[in-house]
Amino acid sequence: MTQKNDPMNVSVTEAEETLAAIQTIAQKTRYAIASGGTYITLIVTGVVWLVGFLSTQFLSGAIVASIWIGMSIVGSMAGILLGTRLGKRVRNPSFNATAKRAGIFWLLLVLYAVAALALARPTDGKQVTAFIILFIMIGQLAMGLLISFDAVWWALPITALALIGYFLLPGIFYLWMGVLGGGGMIAFGLYIRARW
Amino acid sequence: MAELNETIHQPVRLRIMAALVTLEAGNEVDFTYLRELLEVTDGNLGAHLHKLEDAGYIAVNKVFVERKPRTYVSATSEGRKVFKEHVTALESILKCK
To answer: Does the beta-carbon distance from B6 to A92 stay under 8 Å?
Structure first.
């Protein structure tokens, strides 16, 4: 049953308090729900990058590839498990169709990245790494713009870091990406988590 | 002119609606998660959701996820419209001071 009141029955103070309460809960909800996926993605990706890039900087040989593969598998599994847990809190009944499209998009993006690498024929590991980072960030930006705007804001500084590291600090590019890229993502993720 | 809505103006229901309209249209939130977010009891939240559902402002969707029953709640388009009007009415009170 809906009843309507005369606005005059509510005092200015009560109106102020009510609006403040609305703003508080809206902010809390937005933060808790919208940032949930972002902080998990940031921390998981940050750990993978930190360990992977530091090993690339300081180690050599097959062990580096093994570390990257191992970290990527662990990171993907953690992302899926945490994402599934989060998905139970807030869901969109029409999300399955979107998720399928997103999956196809990432698959095509990988194929395009492979094609671009085959055409450009990068001469060293740094170029390959920079290419891969750019493609991942393009995907992240697309997901952010299409699904949730949260992914947009952190993909841009990571892209900038990769370009700065590649062009200005080639000698410590992997260290740069590991500490500032991976560490930065972890720090941002923890910051978002702490503010919630 | 927008008017205050007594159903929504009740503090717990107001916070429920504020949380639900913050979600993107089409999204629904788990009952347990909403309870934690609003820091209310099961019974309290259930009673207020019932009133909002009766008014047509929210939709309650009971489903099975991994063989366990779960209740999801979302704001209806009518609920979003009425909540917006309620906020506009509150703002108009401030403007009149």
So the answer is: no
